[in-house]
Amino acid sequence: MLKEKISAFIETIRSINGVAACALVSRDGIIAGKHFDRDLNEPWFGALSATILASAESVGSIIKMKSMESITIRATDATIVVIGAGENFLIAVILTSSADPDAIHAALLPIAKKIGEAM
């Protein structure tokens, strides 16, 4: 049953216009579900996505931010969004070159909330 839930969440995330690749990752960096459109080191992607979000949350705490929703990493040839999905998981997505990061962030928020409630 858990496997089916994870697969359904991955399919929902994949259906967002502009998402090229995605993963549902535990807060300790283990990939629970994924769809990648490219070859990459999956364990490192999961571990580093979790590390990036945890580091950003720590910085947010230091500067007394109310909450950390997500981190966006922008480069000339790629954009990655990492968003918390409850206490146990996060979503990491790689965007297409033509994607609107703000629109994808807005689309991911309700999915992240559902994941947090379900898992």
How are the elements arranged and paired?
Blueprint: H1 2-14, E1 19-26, E2 31-35, H2 42-62, E3 70-74, E4 79-85, E5 89-95, H3 101-118
Antiparallel strand pairs: 1-2, 1-5, 3-4, 4-5
Pfam families: Robl_LC7
Protein name: Roadblock/LAMTOR2 domain-containing protein
Domain Roadblock/LAMTOR2: 6-95
The first-level CATH class name: Alpha Beta
The CATH architecture comes to 2-Layer Sandwich
Which fold name corresponds to the CATH topology? Answer: Beta-Lactamase
**Number of E strands:** 5
pLDDT < 50 stretches: none
Order of helix and strand elements from N to C terminus:
HEEHEEEH
> How large, in whole angstroms, is the Cα Rg?
13 Å
CATH level-4 homologous superfamily: Dynein light chain 2a, cytoplasmic
> First CA to last CA: what distance?
12 Å
Number of helices: 3
Most strands sheet = 5 strands, antiparallel
What oligomeric state do the depicted chains represent?
single chain
**Could you tell me the strand content as a percent range?**
25-35%
Structural class: alpha+beta
Strand order of the largest sheet: 2-1-5-4-3
Indicate how many domains the architecture comprises. Answer: 1
Q: State the shape.
A: globular
The portion of residues assigned to helices is 40-55%
Mean pLDDT: 95
InterPro entries: Roadblock/LAMTOR2_dom
Organism: Methanoregula formicica (strain DSM 22288 / NBRC 105244 / SMSP)
Pfam families: Robl_LC7
Protein name: Roadblock/LAMTOR2 domain-containing protein
